[in-house]
Amino acid sequence: MVEASPIEHLGPTRLDALVALEPTRSHDILACELAQEDARVFGIGGNERLIGYATVARLPFEAELQAILVAEPYRRQGVARCLLEAVIVQARDWERERLLLEVRAGNVAALALYRRLGFVQDGRRSRYYPPMGAGSSREDALLMSLPLG
Known about the structure:
By secondary structure, the protein is of the alpha+beta class. The chain has helices spanning 15-21, 27-35, 79-93, 108-116; strands spanning 8-9, 39-45, 50-58, 62-70, 98-104, 120-129, 139-147. The radius of gyration is 15 Å and the shape is globular. Strands 1-2-3-4-5-7-6 form a seven-stranded mixed beta sheet, with helices on both faces. Strand 2 and strand 3 form a beta hairpin.
């Protein structure tokens, strides 16, 4: 686990660090997420550089984990768990009934984390995700939720 790196609520001033961590999403989309009133973006890392982030959106009765990413060298060190715990606290602070997420069916590490924290599978979207690379096929999305009551 990366010590001395508290979870922070990211605001617009951290856009460049977020873009550097998440180059697959557009600058404009990330800027919108940072500015939304009904969303929170949490980050972990140093002053200039983020090593992970998570975005949660407030819905009418639920909250949804919209994104979570940890930089490759910092995976399997508890970073994602810390970020997800911050998301859960935020969803409870918003007094939501459940926290929702979707995950690639083949993402074994993420599924193990979600299950350890009490998420259960609610459904499946067949062939939802595009292929990850050459020679791969579309992948199912698993729909999961965590009751917050």
